Amino acid sequence: MQNLTLLDGQKFQITIKRLCHQLIENHDDFSDSVILGIQPRGIYLANRIAYELQQILPQANILNGNLDITFFRDDFRRREAPLLPNATSIDFIIEGKKVILVDDVLWTGRTIRSAMDAMLAFGRPKKVELLVLVDRRFSRDLPIEPDYIGIRVDSINSQRVIVSWKETDQEDTIILLSDKD
Amino acid sequence: MADNYKGLSTKHLLGIKDLNERDIQLIFETADTFKDVLNRPIKKVPSLRDVTIANVFFENSTRTRLSFELAQKRLSADTINFAASSSSVSKGETLIDTVNNILAMKVDMIVMRHPYPGAGIFLSKKVNAQIVNAGDGAHEHPTQALLDAFSIREKFGDVAGKKVAIIGDILHSRVALSNILCLQMLGAEVMVCGPTTLIPKYIKSLGVKVEFDLMKALNWCDVANMLRIQMERQDIKYFPSLREYSMMYGVNKQILDSLDKEIVIMHPGPINRGVEITSDVADSKQSIILDQVENGVAIRMAVLYLLAGQKP
Prior knowledge:
The complex is a heterodimer of chains A (181) and B (312).
Chain A (H helix, E strand, L loop, with lengths): L1 E7 H19 L5 E6 L3 H15 L6 E5 L30 E9 L3 H10 L7 E10 L11 E6 L6 E5 L1 H4 L3 E6 L3
Parallel strand pairs in A: 2-3, 2-4, 4-5, 5-6
Antiparallel strand pairs in A: 1-8, 7-8
Chain B lengths: L20 H18 L13 E6 L5 H12 L3 E6 L11 H10 L4 E6 L4 H8 L3 E7 L5 H15 L6 E5 L6 H12 L3 E5 L15 E3 L2 H7 L2 E4 L15 H8 L3 H6 L5 E3 L12 H4 L6 H20 L4
Parallel strand pairs in B: 1-2, 1-3, 3-4, 5-6, 5-8, 6-7, 8-9
Helix pairs in contact in B: 1-11, 2-11, 5-6, 5-11
């Protein structure tokens, strides 16, 4: 395996901050908006974004929930064993709100399709946007594009993009893994 | 879950005997999330939308059948129901013919209750579909045992180390056998209690305690699982009268209050009120009978999800 670090250290921080400021441009004080992190890996980014937003907007009440999409996937009965679910914790109603879906890596777009399905169990949102830290360009299976992007990456299918977080993996990094030929 | 996660170790759910501890924990963890789904305004998920399930009941049932059917609907599966009493079985069709005819209609999974022990195991060897045992004679009733253990886990946080007394008609009970196997696998201590005639002779070989005195059993346990006296299976008299049985083995509020600790009362249903337990016990705060029913749907969703999710 060959590793290529795409983003780390201070640049990682700057990217997160930039995403927050882009969000504020569109959502003002977040009185009408909610953040939904997609389980399992999107919740770290969602928590970080919510934390940073709170630093920038101390008066705002930032609603942040975790959304599990396992039961809404389209590959059930197509893999050896069913995927195990994670907890969904959304203690607010998204009816009429602007929802920002948050995930770490956008690749085929299938997770996001499932997330849009899963989300509807909590109400009919006014608008849905997508924020991702890494956009793997030109690899979409579905017509889905993000509204806010940390970095864009050109990659091939055999490569993997791994996002690590200070909270769980000691440091903030984005790494591109490739099989050695 | 670990990296080497491969789902359940079995293709069918025929009995607790076929499961290992990891399977049971997997079912519980999955049921936790389904319980969360069941408490949402929209209680349905689309996971099993391309799965068809037949509920084949050769014996009467209220809770189990409704609970399975609801679990299937919440998972978006297509379901068909079959009750032996109103079918061609009464014209003499065999079990395998009946099931193969159902399968010819492109059914993926069979949930079956049957009065004969081992009917599910037999069927799983003869037909090409996944079988879930919803009770086979006096043999096993795995989903009931899973939901009982899940309810104990919910009440106490863990099953390991808990003392569970199963009281009543052990001889005719499929709930008793499945419960013993399941609870022991999860590290609980199990005692059976009832009249000598209703305790099977070799039950000790399962490693359970046997007690004939109700008060001793209640004083020992954290949880008392009260079983129904199954009059329909009693071909001979096992005790002089129901009145005498309820005097010796019935639990009432007075008995519960006389214990020096608060124990939890469970019952798989249907209750014979005034026989195994009185109404004031069944409806008391110590009873988790209705929690058991609620958990039944989540457990059955988890079982169906984990079985159906295996590649066909």
